[in-house]
Amino acid sequence: MSTAPRNRFSGSTALVTGAGSGLGRAIALALAAEGANVVAVGRTAAPLDETVALIEAAGGTALAHPADVSRADDVKAAVRTTVDRFGSLDVAVNNAGVFRGGGPVADLSAKDWQTLLDINVTGVLYGLQAQVAQMRTQESGGAIVNISSNIGPHRTQSGATAYGVSKAAVSALTRGAALDHIADGVRINAVSPGASATSMSLRPGETEAERDVRMKGESPLGRVAATSEVAAAVLYLASSDAASVVGADLVIDGGASA
Description:
This protein has 7 helices and 7 strands; from the N terminus they run E-H-E-H-E-H-E-H-E-H-E-H-H-E.
């Protein structure tokens, strides 16, 4: 069997939010490896520059654009920068998200609740609005993938109710937007990861080795997902391989929500 790399995104331009670390960085690297020009978006410049450096070291093309996804003007500016630099926006991945308010619902602070809504939900809405506005002007349209979670849309977890609410909203927003805009030539889907090999899956004070032991008992698969496995799902949905996939929510959680 051939192991030659695929180039499904050659000549395309992709924007990835939350691209300074974790899943966002893995997705940005994977898109660049398959030929996309990548615009790495996030709140802090330094980690975005690191992502760009990794892409360029591997022979790819990338640009860092600091932005706060909870600010509509920032998101619009990121799309403008993308189009000004590369001429189009073909793929967008709304990955930026936070976990706040761990604990019982009755003890949830108003600040944590608002932060979850501002970044995890409104940030995705602003992304969709700016991205669709550009993509529907393009003859080729575009593809958008929102990063949701298995917590909320697909399962519940004690102490993570507020986070789950925000991610259930992302999944609902994805399905509705997908129907609203497929006639514009824009395909919109979601990926819902479970625990993956990022800092978000670590409990306070827990090491990666301790997490791996814990996951043997908690996950049917017996481990967290590699970030490359989640990225592969995103690239599938963003590619022409998924040309007839609209409004899907692909769960990558090792069977936790089965």
